[in-house]
């Protein structure tokens, strides 16, 4: 990046950013009427002004898809095989009707769509997928589309009144540092949520004063929140898919070898004053890891085949489950 500074332009800064420092990127098409600029945004894990680098191009003077292809080749990494057993929703149509179909249709949560058809389209019009890349799951909301491919998460966001300006945001799977799912609430809560945590920047907020109220912090790209229709998406199947895509067991740097047998046993439920003091202090008590291991591998299939529950603890409505490769937090 070459930055000419000053009135005379004698001071010039030459900045080099390795592709490994780019954690995500987006390209945006030109809008309608007088909007003739396309846009490129690079997201890095650097602090300060360089956490986000923007560049505008005149739409007739720059090949946006060639630029997007170049970034894919350098940022997305090696090819990955499609995961077996992933529901593609081929020829899928919503069967939900009546008043609940109307209510959920008015919301902006996303529903599954045919990933095979989406894969065929996005290899050519527009050509945002690599030749070996495949769409494994696809979801569509009111105007937005979310894609889970073999190499990355893609969000397609239509902007403006006419929807001519479209942003294509991409983030490789190996750049996510944590993930979680959240079940829908009671009655008219139709949303199940997926939370994807990154090392990208967030807005810390601003303190208030006598003349203005405080501005609360915003997660921005540090936490990507995806809303799905609870009646159309299997949340635990989605959690299992993300586990397979993000937690690549074969590439983990494991510590010292340990016995994969459970390391704790269930503690008896406390009684009397012990129960009161444990509740007041939010103390964790041990629970049987063997039962959880069976549950997470069968009824609620969210674990990989070679993952084992080693330790498990519970305090009130919070549980902590320890594996050799991760820690799972459960909240109610």
TrEMBL record:
Pfam families: bPH_1. Gene3D superfamilies: Bacterial Pleckstrin homology domain. It comes from the Eukaryota. Residues 1-75, 116-198 form the Bacterial Pleckstrin homology domain. This is Bacterial Pleckstrin homology domain-containing protein.
């Amino acid at each position: 990046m070459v930055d000419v500074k000053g009135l005379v332009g004698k001071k010039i800064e030459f900045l080099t950013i390795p592709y490994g420092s780019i954690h995500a990127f987006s390209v945006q098409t030109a809008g309608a009427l007088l909007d003739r600029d396309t846009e490129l945004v690079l997201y890095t894990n650097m602090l300060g002004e360089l956490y986000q680098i923007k560049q505008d191009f005149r739409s007739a003077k720059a090949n946006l898809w060639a630029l997007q292809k170049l970034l894919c080749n350098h940022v997305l990494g090696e090819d990955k095989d499609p995961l077996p057993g992933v529901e593609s929703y081929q020829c899928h149509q919503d069967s939900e009707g009546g008043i609940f179909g109307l209510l959920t249709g008015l919301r902006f949560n996303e529903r599954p769509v045919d990933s095979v058809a989406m894969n065929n389209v996005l290899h050519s019009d527009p050509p945002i997928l690599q030749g070996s890349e495949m769409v494994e799951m696809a979801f569509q909301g009111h105007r937005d589309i979310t894609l889970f491919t073999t190499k990355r998460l893609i969000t397609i966001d239509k902007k403006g009144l006419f929807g001519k300006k479209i942003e294509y945001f991409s983030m490789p799977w190996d750049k996510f540092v944590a993930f979680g799912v959240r079940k829908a609430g009671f009655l008219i809560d139709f949303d199940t949520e997926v939370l994807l945590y990154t090392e990208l920047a967030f807005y810390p907020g601003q303190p208030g004063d006598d003349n203005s109220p405080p501005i609360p912090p915003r997660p921005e790209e540090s936490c990507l929140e995806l809303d799905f229709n609870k009646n159309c998406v299997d949340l635990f199947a989605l959690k299992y898919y993300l586990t397979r895509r993000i937690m690549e067991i074969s590439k983990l740097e494991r510590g010292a070898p340990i016995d994969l047998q459970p390391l704790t046993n269930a503690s008896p439920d406390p009684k009397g004053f012990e129960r009161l003091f444990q509740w007041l202090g939010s103390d964790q008590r041990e629970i049987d890891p063997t039962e959880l291991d069976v549950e997470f591998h069968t009824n609620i299939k969210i674990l990989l085949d070679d993952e084992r529950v080693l330790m498990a603890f519970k305090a009130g409505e919070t549980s902590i489950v320890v594996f050799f490769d991760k820690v799972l937090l459960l909240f109610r």
